[in-house]
Write a structure and sequence with these properties.
homodimer, 37% helix, globular, VC0802-like, 2 domains, eight-stranded mixed β-sheet, 14 helices
């Protein structure tokens, strides 16, 4: 008997028919002798519907008291889901009970719309599991120390599921989703993309942060911090496939390098076209200048991704960074109105038509020449590299948006990730 | 400065446009210097949508654990409403905060789907009011001693509002609804029906229990128990009518007889066609027989309304009662399978095509001949009376359903309730 956490996305919960199918799948696991905790998302479209209603009443909520109400409204989507799923389980003859985040409770900080989980009380869950019940818990939400409802931000149910699994020291956390695992890259861009049977936690973290939408990045951080064995698998397989097959499907996130079955140098190619590039040209090169530039942008609550500062010459340097494309105009405004006058820099230029392409792989630690292969491959395709950043297990380049597909395909092939290449090994 | 509770029905909350209009009305009261607590219902249709989803997964929930989930799902409708209304108020520049029943908390018993309020903690509400905030509280729901969500049953938001007003010792509870007050009878049946400027608590209780749908009966009981000045008024008046006019509109429920401005003998005519009549014929007339008949019906969770037992002759009597029409077949089954064999009664007959028509008025206490006028009026219209029951301030008759409109119109006229009659006084 194992203690397993299942997480189901909005598509899986999209209709009562699909909810019934989720219940049948959970019932299969229960009948195989396991203890189950299930974290379902809101029914697909529901969170958007609720936020849409709120937006009609307040187009741009930003005050904490407004964000508090936004969270209270948005959290109801998951509350409906857990009640319906518990009913569907009971209708299958499986004892089940639902809890909202406040009932567990799932304690968070008070950062409405992007709260972080502080702790999860496992007492109530354990008591119900001991009584043979399936416990269905809302994802995406919790309560703060004052008893206000908070939400964790988009995709937060992944984080809730992993956090619950960590609190319960569950044997595995299964994230049922629209895709059947983690791929070497997006199969819509590269048809030869392969599913990975396993991926290291560090690689998954890079893939998530680089734009692969399979898992919310905070859920990966949680999985890593608490070493929660987490598996991403398809919610579209028939619910009645043999449980042994289901338990081995998808992609397992691992924590030991030697657990990894495929020791490719590069595990995957990630990409992201949600960013825009901004350069401050002719910045006086003096101590504190980076903060003078980035400080006002951060103060405007704009997240910054890649930052590049090149060596200076003649006492001047150029300073570049990327922001989310939605924040591009606002960031340009901050720089022109505040940063240029304050720093005496020459001018600000920007480009929203860029993309970031990254190669990710634990093997890069021990293999030289990986970045060099990346640059050569792009060069052979005539793609100009605008910015470069590296970490221990990834190399990212910023290029013109129009070359994105070409770059991803070429890199996928160059690092032997194509399915045909592996089959030939 | 007064402390006022407003309650808005589902139609008032039916769209973001209407929610904005509610916020404008509340803001008007705030700007006039009052402290406001607002209890909105779920957006119209929302509770039915949620219960419909649950029904698709479990057609006939009856186990407590299933009813618990049903309540958890149904309660979300009001949670959405309070958050949206708080946002709409904030957008008007009015500080506002929303609470779910569990946050106040509104303590109830554990009778899922028909819970009763045990207590309301006013600390949080008072603290927010003292800070100048409008407090928006979910109607229809609470939590039990174990922290489970409960609902109060259909129309429960009226009860929530009156209970909140009682807990806060509010100066007045204004129930904004689809009608502009309490009428002498349903204007759809009698176009001459008049709005009552005030009605005594006892009369309102009879009107509510007799099928007038203006207020949930439990809210009237609450208003009476705690002497909460409660006014029923229209939510369809423009939000910007002068506050003095609005404060005097609708119908005020009063507690002192001498407060009553119109001392009519009969205040209103109520009717109800949701009932069915059942008679057990040839019952041996012995002690305990009433319980032997009614006991099994009550045990089957069927509510019984009118009960009549006539004097016996030859040691046998006939025993009649009415039940809700939805329970008619089930009640007949219980009687035939359990009661007939146990009592030795001759047979059971029933009729679902009946209706109950009642005259209600505090004046009946001191005026003789009121019932007699009722019977004469029906007789003159050729309407046969099947059952009669009386209380201190009402007389009800059960008649053939097809005569309902005719009976209501004739009685309305006979007791001088027509608008034209009053105008001529």
């Amino acid at each position: 008997m194992a203690l397993i956490v299942h997480k189901y996305g909005g598509t899986s919960m999209g209709s009562t028919e699909r909810i019934r199918s989720v219940a049948q799948r959970v019932a299969k696991w229960v009948r195989a002798g396991h203890q189950l905790v299930v974290v379902p998302s809101a029914m697909s479209g529901e969170t958007n519907r609720l936020l849409g209603l709120a937006k009609e009443l307040m187009p741009n909520p930003s005050a904490p008291e407004a964000l508090r109400e936004l969270d209270a409204v948005a959290a109801t989507g998951e509350q409906v889901s857990v009640g319906l799923l518990a009913l569907a389980l009971q209708a299958q003859g499986v004892p089940a009970v639902s809890y909202g985040g406040w009932q567990v409770p799932v304690q968070t900080d008070s950062a409405y719309t992007k709260a972080r989980i502080a702790s999860i009380d496992d007492a109530r869950i354990r008591a119900d599991l001991a009584c043979g019940k399936v416990v269905v818990i809302t994802g995406f939400q919790g309560i703060d120390a004052l008893g206000n409802v908070t939400t964790l931000g988009r995709g937060g149910s992944d984080t809730s599921a992993v956090a619950v699994a960590a609190a319960l020291k569950a044997d595995e956390c299964l994230i049922y989703t629209d895709v059947d695992g983690v791929y070497t890259t997006d199969p819509r861009i590269v048809p030869e993309a392969r599913r990975l049977a396993s991926i290291s936690f560090e690689e998954m973290l890079e893939m998530a942060s680089l734009g692969s939408k399979v898992l919310q990045i905070r859920s990966v951080e949680f999985a890593g911090k608490y070493r929660v064995p987490t598996r991403v698998l398809s919610s579209f397989t028939p619910w009645d496939i043999p449980i042994e097959d289901e338990a081995q499907s998808g992609t397992l996130i691992t924590f030991e390098e030697d657990e990894k079955m495929e020791q490719a140098v590069v595990s995957g190619i990630a990409f992201n076209r949600d960013e825009a590039k901004i350069s401050v040209i002719g910045v006086p090169d003096r101590p504190g200048i980076a903060f003078q530039i980035i400080g006002p942008v951060a103060a405007a609550n704009i997240d910054i991704d890649v930052i590049i500062q090149n060596v200076s010459h003649d006492g001047r340097t150029d300073f570049s960074f990327t922001v989310h494309r939605n924040d591009y105009q606002r960031a340009m405004g901050v720089l022109e109105s505040q940063v240029l006058p304050a720093t005496g820099a020459a001018r600000v230029i920007g480009d929203a038509k860029i993309c970031k392409v990254s190669i990710v792989g634990i093997g890069m630690r021990s293999h030289v020449g990986v970045a060099s292969t990346m640059f050569r491959t792009l060069s052979e395709e005539g793609i100009n590299i605008q910015m470069i950043t590296t970490s221990e297990i990834k190399t990212s380049v910023v290029i013109d948006e129009k070359y994105m597909e070409l770059a991803v395909r070429a890199l996928h092939k160059a690092f032997d990730l194509d399915a045909s290449a592996v089959a030939a090994e």
